[in-house]
Amino acid sequence: MKRIAIIGGGPIGVEAALYGACAGFDVQVYERGRLAENVRAWGYINVFTEWKRNRSPLACRLLTAQAVLLPDGETTSSGDELAAYVAQLAALEPLRGRIQEHTEVVSITRERCLKSDFINDARRAEFPFRLHLRDDAGDRIEHADIVFDATGVYGTPNWMGSGGAPCPGEREWRERIDYHLPDVAGHDQLRFANRHTLIVGSGHSAASTLRSICDLMPQHPRTRATWIVRRDVPPHGFPYTLVPDDPSPHRDELHRRANELTEHANVDFRPRTVVETIKHDGQSFQVLISTYRSGESSLQAQSARLECDNIAAHTGFGPDAALWSDLQVQVHPATGGPFRLAEALIANNFHAGVGLSTGYAEKKPRAGTAAETASTPQDRFQVVLNDPDFLRHPEPNFYVIGIKSYGRDAGFLMQNGFRQVRDVYKLASGDASLDLYEGTLD
Prior knowledge:
alpha/beta; FAD/NAD(P)-binding domain; 2 domains; 5-stranded parallel β-sheet; 4-stranded parallel β-sheet; 15 strands
């Protein structure tokens, strides 16, 4: 029986373990913290995708058989509710004794085989994976025939400086910067009410934090926000181009609200703007920013200084490749994700008119005739990538799945992860017809 090591006990990692156990594999999950640790970190946030998109057909069948009452598929969940769902999966009989919490994977190598041995050669599979583990009892080594990295990207936020590097002062003051979503309506409210917050970024996190801050304004009228976006905006002047008949009404509502809030009296919206330097005097931040005119060179920037109480750097996340540094893993130079998958995503994004990390902020009119434009999918989140070969690496039997597989691309949804789970088991088993979801995701 093939031994499969799954790194990461989040929604996709646990789903992969459940699928593998039901398919007859010997699976073990290693989670550095608690089960669904990263999800718990944003437990107070509501996701914009409905439950029907965030749970798999296999999981639903098994939970229903255990008389677990599932929420209505058309409703959405908080992060805490999603973490509770993952715990329900972990408690199912097929996964008992298969999940090791508070167990860090320090490194993944091949036993007696260096990274430079057997370059792009299937013979590497003859040497088992060697997992260096660390828990409360100390360090130990375990082995596996197949490895899935489902660790996500939550622990590696991108820097907010120009070009993606840390700006001067950012490393020094990063402990005071919100790289993750703050709990503006709850635990963190006193930090934001009647305070000035600088928001950097153009994705869903930036829009969500802006919305939460503006919800404080009726009761706390001195609350202010400066929202800067590093790229240009579409000709209509708003950060988000709305998708006609958006299949996700919650996402549509978030985009509409964020667009409207750019014109709020207490919001200063600045596209084409970057953070140059930050300082902190113990009370507030002093930030130097530069704004560029559309179509003009960077040498014609207009600089300004602002003082703020908080900085929310919602500039996305990137994959941490440290675990694979001694394996033959082929990553894309732009996304940091698996090369073949990245190429497919980039092609899809091109047709949808969006960039890797900006959601709909970079949407542009597409070239072609009116008929071609009408027939091309408008929403990149709706495109299905069903080719298992997208997940292959030169390293045999090693796969990156879940949001980490998308690298810096912000288009991942959990349904993408379920398809990846199905596809990697087709590769692991050698059976292209294996589908415990029974065709429901096609």
